């Protein structure tokens, strides 16, 4: 070094050290969601209003000339909602993530192996109204999963993630559009 100046080799070395330290801190593992979800049992001032539905279209088929059929929609068929079904509200985080994914994958809300006791004690329940609407009140602020069944026997599980804030009403719409892949988090894509 001469005076306050760094030689080119030292400048390059210092730059590389800065880059490496930035790369290491930039790729840190995401923080795990705490397993303590007792906050979800506390009363609060938030509300969650929701609607759950599934649109089923009428279809027709015609021969394609090669031994197969071409299937096409002939218009709107029926609208199914969550009317009369249980609506579950549970906090996001372990072990709820796995339970919710399994409920969707196995198309059930009631299998106790998919929702063990440590999950069940933090789940809020209500019955979906005849018009497919539901409202949870007195909720604490936080991140939640909403899960319900849409349609009649056997029906289809629909899931959505939503956040509540104190003194406000959060709105959520649940739709069931697919059964595969086995995750509600990754809808199918044609691309």
Question: Which features does this protein show?
Answer:
single chain, 191 residues, alpha+beta, Immunoglobulin-like, four-stranded mixed beta sheet, four-stranded antiparallel beta sheet, 3 helices, elongated
- So what's the oligomer here? single chain
**Morphology call:** elongated
What is the CATH level 1 assignment of one domain? Mainly Beta
Distance between the termini: 57 Å
Helix content: 10-25%
CATH topology grouping of one domain: Immunoglobulin-like
**Helix tally?**
3
Name the average pLDDT. Answer: 77
Element order: H for helix, E for strand = HEEEHHEEEEE
Structural class: alpha+beta
CATH superfamily of one domain: Carboxypeptidase-like, regulatory domain
> Any low-confidence stretches, pLDDT <50, length ≥5?
14-34
Count of DSSP strands = 8
Radius of gyration: 25 Å
- Beta-strand content estimate: 35-45%
The CATH architecture of one domain can be given as: Sandwich
Major sheet size, sense and barrel closure: 4 strands, mixed
Brief digest:
The chain has 191 residues and is α+β, with helices and mostly antiparallel strands.
Describe this structure in words.
Helix content is 18%, strand content 38%. The chain is α+β, with helices and mostly antiparallel strands and 191 residues long. It has a domain at 47-52 and 80-175: Sandwich (Immunoglobulin-like). The strands form two sheets. Strands 1, 2, 5 and 8 form a four-stranded mixed β-sheet that branches. The N and C termini lie far apart (57 Å). The model is unreliable at 14-34 (pLDDT under 50).
